[in-house]
Amino acid sequence: MTAPAAETTVPTGHDVPRAVSALLFVRDRGIFVLWGLILLAFSFWCAPYFATLDNALLIANAAALTAIFAAGVGFGVMTGVLDLSLPGTAAFAACLTGWLVTNGQPIWLSLVAGLASGVAIGLLNGLIVLRGFNPIIVTIGTLSALSGLAAVIAGGYTFPGLTGLTFMGTDRYLGVPAPVYIVALLFLVGTVFLTRTRDGIRLMAVGGNAEAVRRSGIHADRYKVLGFVISGLCAALGGLVTAAITTEATPEASPSIIFNALTAVALAGVALTGGRGSLPRVLVGALILATIANGLTIRGVQPYWATVTTGVLLLASLLLERIVQTGVSNRLMSSANLSVHRKQV
């Protein structure tokens, strides 16, 4: 007489979707929770100087430049490419604008020329990449070339005294710094474009699976180039805002630009493989970096610790992205296997 088989508990199927939902929440909304916790921690640790309106404006203003460049990186990454030429584009656009202003050209024309140079550089990068070249190598080469061209325009020096640009740099409107308005407008327009327009949705789709988009009859290459163009435009805008804040245009292409922008994008959970991301999360990523630097400064901690913290956050965000993606894949596979088992039963 054989013993009865031990009873096995068959999952109901509700636990798997719930686990997936929790992981997706961490991926898509976790950065907002993280920023809230950081704000709460610094509010107590740096009381009473941190949790004030004036300090909030300081953080927003400090995050503005990183946010602009992070938007450029984010647009490129969502399209499936990584544009490393942003510092060179920013330096070239700033020096071109500075040269035009110094030579008596109208401010508006000089700014338009600087922004147009970013569009042209992005278009050039995109067209070269379409020839089959690696985008990282192409943009590194462009970065080097643009840094040299910016130095040629400036004659190895800088363009000082650009006080005509302060309206978009150091000036305040209703007590709010001008760069904060620029960032708000940029991210509002960018978010609407990505989520409410046909071209924006297609751009994200190309980043996710360019071949599938191509087979559906959509010109995928056009949207890859568009991603480079938007990235170049954001870089040029960042260069002009930098020049407006410092009232000078310098040919130096600072590597910290791309480092901070990449960190903000990685914190936002934007997949470096493309096809997934959110500009509001990118903005919060930039705000987190500025918040940490601000809080440590108030406490009198040496500035290099902010750099250490930034690097640790970057590694942690990449690790979290891997854990979440693996967890979601495993849960979905378990759910699929469960469905097959039920059908067989």
Keywords summarizing the entry:
345 residues, mainly alpha, single chain, ABC transporter involved in vitamin B12 uptake, BtuC, membrane, disordered N terminus, ABC_transp_permease, transmembrane
What portion of residues is helical?
A: over 70%
Strand share of the residues? under 5%
- Kindly give the count of domains: 1
**What CATH first level would be assigned?**
Mainly Alpha
Order of helices and strands: HHHHHEEHHHHHHH
Q: What topology, given as strand order, has the largest sheet?
A: 1-2
Q: State the shape.
A: globular
Q: Give the biggest beta sheet.
A: 2 strands, antiparallel
N/C terminus separation: 26 Å
How many strand segments? 2
Q: What is the rounded Rg?
A: 23 Å
Instruction: Please work out how many helical segments DSSP would assign.
Output: 12
Provide a descriptive summary of the structure in words.
By secondary structure, the protein is an all-alpha fold. The protein has one domain (50-314): Orthogonal Bundle (ABC transporter involved in vitamin B12 uptake, BtuC). The protein has 12 helices and 2 strands. Strand 1 and strand 2 form a beta hairpin. It is a multi-pass membrane protein. This is Autoinducer 2 import system permease protein LsrD. The chain crosses the membrane at residues 31-51, 57-77, 107-130, 137-158, 178-195, 225-245, 257-275, 282-298, 304-324.
